[in-house]
Amino acid sequence: MIFLLSRLFVVKPYCALLGLFILLLATPAYAQKPAAAGSKTAAADSAAIPAPRRQFQATRITEAIKIDGELDEAVWLTAPVATNFIETRPTPGRPEKHATEVRLLYDDAALYIGAVMHDVSPDSILRELTQRDDLGNTDYFAVFLDTYNDKLNGYGFFLTPGGVELDARYSPAGGEDFNWNAVWMSQTKLRGNDWIAEIRIPYSAIRFSDAAEQVWGINFVRQRQSTRQQFFWNQVKPQVDGFVNQWGELRGVRDIKPPLRLSLTPYVSSYYDHFPFNEQGKRNSSTSFNGGADVKWGINESFTLDATLVPDFGQVQSDNQVLNLSPFEVQYNENRQFFTEGTELFNKGGLFYSRRVGGQPLGFYEVDGQLRGRTTSPEGQIKQGEYVVSNPGVTRLLNATKISGRTKGGLGVGLFNALSNDVYATLQDSTSGERREVLTQPFSNYNIFVLDQSLKNNSYVSLINTNVTRKGSTYDANVTGGLFRFADKSNRYALKGQANYSRRRGNVFGADEQVDNRDGYKYQLEVGKISGNFNWNLSHGIESDTYDPNDLGILFSNNSISQEASVSYNKYEPFWKVNQLRTDMGIYQTLLYKPTRFQNLGFYAGANTTFTKNFFSTGFNVNGNLEEQDFFEPRRRPLGTYYVRVPANLGISGYGSSDYRKKFAYDISLATRLYQADGQRTDRVNYGLGISPRYRVSNRLSFRYNFDWQLQQNQIGYAGGLSSRQEADRPFIRNGVADVILGRRNRTTTTNTVSANYTFTNRMSFTIRTRHYLSVARYRDFSRLNPGGEEEAVDYRRNRDNSFNAFNVDAVFSWWFAPGSQITVVWKNANASELAGDQTLPQYFTNFNNTLNTPHNNSVSVKVLYFLDYLTLRPKRG
């Protein structure tokens, strides 16, 4: 059957989905049986229907409420009570045994939520202290608000017994996003066997319409960590697709007006940097002072402007640098708060990779090619040529602005704009000392525009446009995408789609020729069953050979046709000795788009569960591939002629995770990938091991260690570019065209990360994280890649071994001394080095000692932010 399908994929790729679907339905373990009346299947289907929406009545007040965790004002006793919470996990549907009681008040300025969580004893209330927006081993209470009642977008405000605050946004694009931050007030108290949460959410922290009577979606959740139970006031069923659409309804909020939302958060920062150049005329240390501000302005009740003026991102966590031997770039996490907070609209369609804004200059790697080399004068005098004095690796932003919001009709609108200045590398003549500057990035404007219309039945349609405009003749880039999701009335089936068009116009940076990928397109279609125990999904997509969203987005490879079919079966109730079971399996296939060539056909399957008594979580994944034709590894354009054959392979991985409630807990993972023997590809195998123990000394102090080790044995890959300046390369450069040289190599990668956290109070903490990364690649032999995937052994003598070390320390002291106001003191220590050829160091401890003994950059910085809210600063009326 697999053989017949593979033939079908090559001859008629657009028939692939039909073949995939037939194969999946032929799998007995996942075939659906007719549901007899009263059968378990019928019961499971009925469980996939959302629970009825409960209604909760708010109470208007005129007297002042003191946020002290006491709930001792008389008005609290007169308000209706939300209680009778229902368990979501581990046993969905059970009523709460230890009651939770919630009351909600409001006035012209804010909502007030008072909650009492009854328990067995004080020891049953777990309360580890952590940083803001970080849940530890603790109970928590949360309130969720869907202020436009569109059942798609919402807010979440969390509070732990230790008083740690967390807040999140909920949306189809971002899911649960804890990067969003708001300014609100809270206090908690322990009282006998209970703990109390008192919360004040000012209207300036949320957005809502100016309707006379507000009807909002609302829900409350309680986590009882001692038993790992989670309870919701309005039942949330794990079988039902979506989260916001399962909230209840808040009524009774009348005659409130969206306030003027205007706040300013100015900052000042100071840096001291030290690097031991130890060269005459070069200072080992430098200092700098910076200042700027973040501005938030509520344009109206629906829309907010966020701007950062002269931003400073020097204190963000260091990137996890790696040795990249693949043909694709490395995608790094975004750690800059302005680009992680409130960006759910801009992330629609996956067209925005925020690291492009203020990222690496276009001409960063072209500087060495512009150095004036050594020359000899007619008198025989030798000039040594130029060297690079500085080549900035990031682009400094001038400002960035976001405008976003949603109307009462459910239309979300987003506008993002950022400006960056010219970036120059500085070159110096070795003999005369004369310096000159080389432009590596022209003045640039980055822009995103989004329209997102929420529809009933958990559906939406969206339009997004991204644009990069650069000064001068350097090319500009534009991408437009349309998205939709339509779910049926019962929320059991959904159809999703996306179509994008990319357009580039202008010259290649630093050259006279125009860009060649001027127009391109992409589309993706998915259909599937989304709710219930048994679900399935079919998808098909195409990315043309000229589709390129990478100026403001990220795409590792285009020029592909992909299709996939998958099924999943999940049990959400405890059975046997486990709390739940999640399984999935599928098959996928990819083709080169132009010319149409087979690339890969594979399958995957996996399962995970948690045991009932000890809460040990475990799972496994299996995936296999037929022989693959990798058209991207050779780095040869146009695609289609050269490819690297990857033998059929099977990967197996498994993991285990112990109960985090214990003082000592651990995670462990094991992985291997076995390859079919094929010519010189004998004994090709990959291994992986991950161990991560953690120890909680107390509710304030904890340690964690991560060890990750990977071995890729007899891997076949691109050995690097050839240069006529290298004598060993010259025999493999014919008529100015370099051969594609592949190498058989062993690669070992080891990562050690140690972190510690000490939390003084729920507003003050200290964290330190140390990471050492080492990857060593050693080549055994080489071959020339010819058209059609044929490899020819060659006597290539250049040593292409290399080793890469990265060492980082990030130590952060943080103090939230007032709502929205913070002082941070950060120490960073960084070193990265790559050794190639005969200088490569293969042994781990030799590399580690060498890394410790080579110069490091040290940076100490202090940053102060102070939150100023117009509503608290304006003169009070007499």
UniProtKB/TrEMBL annotation:
Keywords: Signal
Origin superkingdom: Bacteria
Domain Carbohydrate-binding: start-end pairs: 67-230
InterPro entries: Carb-bd_dom_fam9, DUF5916
Domain (DUF5916) ranges: 258-874
Signal peptide extent: 1-31
Pfam families according to UniProt: CBM9_1, DUF5916
Record protein name field: Carbohydrate binding family 9 domain-containing protein
Organism: Hymenobacter terrestris
Source lineage: Bacteria, Pseudomonadati, Bacteroidota, Cytophagia, Cytophagales
